[in-house]
Amino acid sequence: MERDDLGAMAGRLVRRLIAMEQPILARHGVSMWAYVVLDALAGGAVRTQAALAGSIGADKTRLIPVLDDLQGRALIEREPDPADRRVRLLGLTDAGRALHRAVQGEIRAAEEDLLGAFSPGDREAFLRTLIALSPRAN
């Protein structure tokens, strides 16, 4: 079967997903990076700024303005680590959790529309394959 390379197909899919998500993010007043941060913190495993940067593949210095904005909007908390005052511990506030749930709910609904053309078995196989090919960084 003739087909494009995986990178070319994945790139087109990523661009389509970003275009689908941008209006949702704009309605909620968050950038893509801000949502990535909220999503990572919603998982609960990431607690320090350095760990967050590593888990989302962001440069620590580039991440600071995003964290400053989220903190200024009372969506995240950043507190010194009692064990090491140089380290900042991160967490979502109730407002941050609510915003994350709202944005994620709309994104998941849009994803369901996108995947709606596939049979339930094909959808499940696609999601299983995508999960296997794109493990979360730790």
UniProtKB/TrEMBL annotation:
Domain HTH marR-type residues, every copy: 3-135
GO MF, one example: DNA-binding transcription factor activity
The UniProt record lists the keyword Calcium: no
Swiss-Prot/TrEMBL GO biological process terms: response to stress
Protein keywords: DNA-binding
SMART domains linked to this entry: HTH_MARR (SM00347)
Superkingdom in the source lineage: Bacteria
PROSITE patterns: HTH_MARR_2
Keyword DNA-binding: yes
Protein name stated in the entry: DNA-binding transcriptional regulator, MarR family
Originating species: Actinoplanes regularis
